[in-house]
Write a structure and sequence with these properties.
By secondary structure, this protein is an alpha+beta fold. The protein has two helices and seven strands. 14% of the residues lie in helices and 24% in strands. The strands form two sheets. The protein has a four-stranded antiparallel β-sheet with strand order 3-2-5-6, with no helix packed on it.
């Protein structure tokens, strides 16, 4: 009869059960023996002891990141539907934009608004619509722009406000990009 146990049989698992802890103990003893063979580096009696060389030290330097490059203010592209002729009847037309302009800061604000497609608010293009109106305190004005157009607006400075660099008595132009959004809310 064969006395050897087949692998995976209950007798084989009993045969190898207790050897794991013995193996760990033997490995620990071997590691300690190897580590104890390493002697610390003790200088000979009477020898001059020199400290280990240190890296040179430099004064601390504050690292300030360089400023980001200036951002070019370019208007977003206009919404143009360029679809095949088969899909043409089912494509929506570009919708007009709407600016809701509110005055919560001034007693009565004199505002000039221009609906334009020009990239420069101070030089409106031909056919741009301009409106000149007064906006009372807590008043709101809704300006609807044609599809693909933006709204530029500025406010006349109050007598006690510091004039701008141009000295013309008006704030700089504020541009609301309505060609990329349907509704925008802004305050003076």
């Amino acid at each position: 009869m064969n006395t050897a146990s087949a692998p995976g049989s209950p007798a084989a698992s009993l045969q190898w059960r207790g050897t794991g802890s013995v193996r760990i103990l033997l490995l620990s003893i071997a590691l300690l023996a190897v580590a104890s063979c390493m002697s610390p580096q003790v200088p000979a009696p009477g020898a001059e002891v020199t400290p280990p060389a240190m890296l040179p030290t430099y004064p601390p330097v504050a690292l300030v990141p360089s400023p980001p490059p200036p951002v070019a203010l370019t208007p977003p592209p206009t919404q143009v539907a360029s679809l095949p002729p088969l899909l043409g009847p089912w494509t929506p037309e570009p919708s007009p934009g709407r600016l809701t302009l509110s005055n919560f800061s001034f007693d009565s604000a004199h505002v000039v608004a221009v609906i334009t497609t020009s990239p420069d608010c101070s030089a409106p293009a031909e056919g741009d619509a301009q409106s000149d109106f007064r906006l009372p305190l807590n008043g709101t004005r809704i300006i609807t722009a044609r599809p693909g157009a933006d709204v530029c607006w500025r406010r006349q400075l109050e007598p006690d406000e510091t004039p701008n660099a141009k000295g013309d008595g008006w704030t700089g132009w504020n541009r609301t990009f309505l060609s990329s959004a349907i509704t925008v809310t802004s305050q003076l």
